[in-house]
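I need you to check the entry underneath: sequence plus fold tokens. Let me know what the token row says about the fold.

>
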Amino acid sequence: MNLRHLEMRLERLAGFERPTARLEQYQTPAPVAARLLHHAAMQGAIEGRAVSDLGCGTGFLACGAALLGASPVTGLEIDPAAIEIARRNAETLGVSVEFLVADVRDPGVDWGSLACDTVVMNPPFGAQKAHADRPFIDRALELAGEVYGIFNEGSTPFVAAYTEGRAEIEEVIRCAFPMKRTFAHHRKDRVDITVEVIHLRRI
């Protein structure tokens, strides 16, 4: 499946109905999700691989991975309402994804059973809570050898330092992230920010 076709399929999916600022529930734009997934697929990290989406929200990355032939695919999300939308999105695309309500910081989860080949994720940028992305990075590197994450522009030096001795940055792709008005404190209907899709490989 080419990049544009994948993007068009993801554009059919539903976003958050009542997004929560505390959880930084910004919808992953279809073009960004498609670019991450297509790139990972070209590197052999999706098709036929076990893939997990941490903080999956409404399931764009998880559903897209399944569409590209990943199996099994698991989406983990702390918000039950988002999980329900994600399940409907999987039905829309006709793909099989196991969605679980779980907090990446919860030591009570049987994380060993969720080990996979590849993690894809759009973790919080830390706008509401500093360092909110760190538990996602930690858990991703625990679960998988290959990690593809979406981070705020300028995050690469931090990610490199934070994962030193655990992972190496294989590649960084910068792309536009169109952010629509979502919360009351937003003043514009849309703001285009730049994000970095960072590919980490566990050492």
